[in-house]
Amino acid sequence: MRHIISLLMENEAGALSRVAGLFSARGYNIESLTVAPTEDPTMSRMTIVTSGSDEIIEQINKQLNKLIEVVSVMDLSEGDHIERELMLVKMQAVGAMREELARMTDIFRGRIIDVTDKVYIIELTGSGAKLDSFLQAIDRSLILETVRTGASGIGRGDRVLKL
Amino acid sequence: MELTGAEIAIRCLQEEGVEYVFGYPGGAVLFIYDALFNQSKVKHILVRHEQAAVHAADGYARSTDRVGVALVTSGPGVTNAVTGIATAYMDSIPLVIISGQVPTRAIGEDAFQEVDAVGITRPCVKHNFLVKDVRDIAATIKKAFYLAKSGRPGPVLVDIPKDVSNQKAEFSYPASVSVRSYHPAQNGEMGQIKQAAQLLLEARRPMIYSGGGVILSDASRQLTDLVRLLGYPCTNTLMGLGGFPATDKQFVGMLGMHGTLEANLAMQNCDVLLAVGARFDDRVIGNVEHFNQEKRKIIHIDIDPSSISKRVKVDVPIVGDVAHVLGDLLAVLHSSKQKPEQQALAAWWAQIGEWRGKRCLNYKNSDEIIKPQFVIEKLYEATHGDAFITSDVGQHQMWTAQYYKFDKPRRWINSGGLGTMGFGLPAAMGVQLAHPGAPVACVTGEGSLQMNIQELSTCKQFRLPLKIVLLNNRYLGMVRQWQEFFHGNRYSESYMDALPDFMKLAEAYGHVGMRIEKPSDVGPALKEAFARKDDLVLMDFRTDQTENVFPMVPGGKGLSEVILGEEL
Ligand SMILES: Cc1ncc(C[n+]2csc(CCOP(=O)(O)OP(=O)(O)O)c2C)c(N)n1
What we know:
Largest sheet of chain A: 5 strands, antiparallel
Strand order of the largest sheet of chain B: 3-2-4-5-7-6
Oligomer: heterodimer
Strand content of chain A: 35-45%
Structural class of chain A: alpha+beta
CATH architecture of the largest domain in chain A: 2-Layer Sandwich
Helix content of chain B: 25-40%
Bound molecules: thiamine diphosphate
Order of helices and strands of chain A: EHEEHEEHEEHEE
Number of domains of chain A: 2
Number of helices of chain A: 4
CATH class of the largest domain in chain A: Alpha Beta
């Protein structure tokens, strides 16, 4: 089953490689991994999307907790949470397609953030599934490149991940 | 007053009460060696290979409850140390390894003797640090000792670039340390402990299985009290030997791949299993699916939550320090009015007695040829069962575990997790330094001994009167055994040709060598060797080349699918 795990860790050189190394050494899946410092610059927050049986997910949680620099871990998928991912899509946009792409972007509540005479860059946020459906809805042959951040997640209400 | 980073590092070791540092110098640690030179509190043991430095520190740590310390240079110094570090990591041994690094400005430039020490050791340390600022050295070393020793122990590496070791800072050693992201458990959850007590009291076929965690947490007294209070059978893992006295009638022997029939069958057939500081690894319970075929309730006490429910599902998990948890469990049992059901227990012991009756460790002795098991029995006699015994990896290791009846913890020193040949001799050096005057023997094979034979020179320099019990079968015996059983007797590269004359070799290093070829000479040779209190004696026992280790649960099989000696 797919799980989305959030963790807080010390914002120190090498901390990311400890997490990445753990996943590869123990053969756990990583679908995506995002990380950036938090409002407290001494800490980073990471969101990992992974999958595995209940036993494996339990081990992943325990093994993450065991890393010295990991401050706290929460399996967001165990409760209500929100997941968002950002995608940038660079597309060929000429002739009638310019209008069509603008319309699709609107429907998906995206934005065109860069325009040249041939190219649009479209910015889209949402769940991974929403980004997927956008890609399915447009003419794929027009895509020049895409980049996605991977999911970031946060618990709803008073599910708070902190020190 | 300001000190250099190197001086600070040594002052930290003094503050930690470090007696010995095992090390080997080189360019990146020259300032640290200079700082060592100017003091006499911390003694340095110059080994002949960095792997041995770490094993020696490891042996020191295993035989005491202290942290072992090693010091190596950058690049090849670090890579040579990696086997030692991984060995300690697998067996959760508290070590602090200080390594030199190229100067900060050269890091990343493929400088001479540069290796990414933090990267290369990351998967085999509890934690590691690269110290980039001289002002951080003291706090980092303080943390390193704290992390190494607390919680589930393990090796911690501190990598210090050469320039940092020569910069100056004010020295003050932190009185205390706390790491906000690290909170090892101490006490177990009381509710869980009560539940465990209840399950234990209701058991009809109980079993207590204990591992290295009992040794590491110095909990053998609590374990022994518990086992005796309940009257239940107890088995120890390879790492747990000595945690419960092997001569006690409630001891059913070691379990696992070369465990006794009674221990393995009791594991398989019990209805309540108490696992204490042990981790159900593949060499211990074999095939998980086979193990799971029998239904039993499992209580598991471990300091590391990730050890619980990793390979088998546990009914009552208790996370905490084994000594604390056992103490609490004992208190609950003492205050309980309920007693174990004696009739069921008697029937269970009768069943175990039947398995014991097969006498699975019996072997055919000989008047002509030295049986390795016989040497270990004689070693036990010669040392009154009270020596520190290190071993390497192979058949000799298993025979020692089976035939030397360890009654005390921290007496049996071996590489269980990583299975590192070459561990025995350097580990014995660390043990001997920690216990001057105590009998220390290294049981080894001619393959393993040659992996760190150069340490005979270290032993000479520091006058370490080890007794090396070489079970010389002219084979990589354990490999040969697997080839005999599972590869149609094709002894591919397991014959040890062109062996040195070990007697002369010992003499060449300035020690005493003996060659023993007759069974009747085994006892006297051992007696003589142990009487030579000031000499290192290397005893080259020419043993039966074809002897195998029994019982054996082949890899991937279940605990009841055991091969006994007479079956072949
Ligand atoms: C460093 C290392 N290399 C290889 C092995 C694989 N191995 C396990 S036991 C063994 C044979 C050991 O031979 P020896 O030391 O002569 O002991 P014996 O089994 O004959 O008692 C080997 C090669 C190992 N455990 N460690």
